[in-house]
Design brief:
- By secondary structure, the protein is of the alpha/beta class.
- It has 9 helices and 7 strands; from the N terminus they run βαβαβαβαβααβαααβ.
- It has one domain: 3-Layer(aba) Sandwich (Rossmann fold), CATH 3.40.50.
- A 7-stranded parallel beta sheet has the order 3-2-1-4-5-6-7, sandwiched between helices.
- The termini are far apart.
- The model has no long low-confidence stretch (mean pLDDT 94).
- It binds NADP nicotinamide-adenine-dinucleotide phosphate.
- NADP nicotinamide-adenine-dinucleotide phosphate (NAP) binds next to α1, β2 and α7.
């Protein structure tokens, strides 16, 4: 039997009740990991847990913890549960994010602060807990953030692009902090990926809607096919596994070449 890439590892995936986070949880489960998934909405989280359980290999477990990444209390609770249930953590995959694309004309204070909190403070919060409670004491672990091609090449969605650029910097800051350990810190930067959030953006249903495309369109190659959550999950799998052990402080774009740079 082929050896599983994450056999026996314990992996936390935030924002995994639908979208690419759920695909990541399924792929990690199929590769032998124990899985903890989080999201805010209880119903979809429990439905996702059932789907993840179908993918587990023998002897492995999956649990779901309802939690908002903007809440320090929820964050601590997630790690308390992991400590109680598994006693350890090997992989943090911080995927939860808000993809609304307001151009500067339409930015509103409350939306801006929420996006900063989810996309930038959330990953720092989760990484701090993972590092202090599990990874630094054993000098081992994997952190993977889900950024965006807009982290390197901003689009007109100003707040979103800024959060992902900030997240790329966080990735490198944490790689500096951990270079003398077996901890790696990397980001996967998706291009357009078929998920509920992306489809809502294209339909103009999210804040920002089609205006972001109107102003940013010429800088991206939209002739290439969109990627899927499984394409993103496979890049995360590489970074989470022994194959990625020499890669740290990197932002890997998975975008079919929609943005080359
Ligand atoms: N799709 C794309 O084209 C694309 C491109 C580049 C980058 N990305 C990035 O990829 C990641 C996933 O995107 P996606 O398209 O899969 O998004 P999505 O379809 O909107 O799914 C987001 C997931 O995160 C959860 N979530 C949202 N806010 C949360 C919060 N505050 N706390 C905890 N969980 C939260 C959602 O569940 P609840 O709502 O129930 O909490 C859901 O499970 C994001 O970081 C996004 O910025 C996406």
């Amino acid at each position: 039997m082929k050896e599983k890439m994450l056999d026996g590892k314990i992996a936390l995936i935030t924002g995994a009740s639908y979208g690419m986070g759920l695909d990541m949880a399924k792929v990690f489960a199929k590769e032998g990991a124990n899985i903890i998934i989080t999201a805010r909405g209880e119903k979809r989280l429990n439905q996702a847990l059932e789907k993840v359980k179908e993918c587990l290999t023998e002897g492995r477990r999956a649990i779901a913890v309802q939690a908002d990444v903007t809440s320090p209390e929820d964050t601590k609770h997630v790690y308390d549960v992991i400590e109680e249930e598994f006693g350890d953590l090997d992989i943090l995959l911080h995927n939860a994010g808000k993809g609304e694309m307001e151009i500067i004309d339409d930015v509103q204070e409350d939306h801006m602060m929420e996006t900063l909190n989810i996309n930038l403070a959330g990953p720092i919060r989760y990484a701090q807990q993972a590092l202090m409670r599990f990874f630094l004491p054993k000098k081992e672990g994997r952190i993977i953030f889900i950024s965006s091609v807009n982290g390197k090449k901003p689009c007109a969605g100003v707040v979103y692009s800024a959060t992902k650029a900030g997240l790329n910097n966080v990735t490198m800051s944490l790689a500096f902090r951990t270079w003398d350990t077996n901890i790696t810190v990397n980001a996967v930067a998706p291009g357009a990926t078929i998920t509920p959030a992306h489809l809502a953006n294209l339909r103009g249903e999210q804040d920002g809607g089609e205006k972001w495309l109107e102003y940013s369109g010429p800088y991206f190659n939209y002739q290439v096919p969109d990627t899927t959550g499984f394409d993103q999950a496979n890049a995360c799998l590489f970074l989470a596994s022994h194959m990625g052990q020499c890669v740290t402080g990197q932002v890997i774009q998975v975008c079919n070449g929609s943005y080359l740079g």
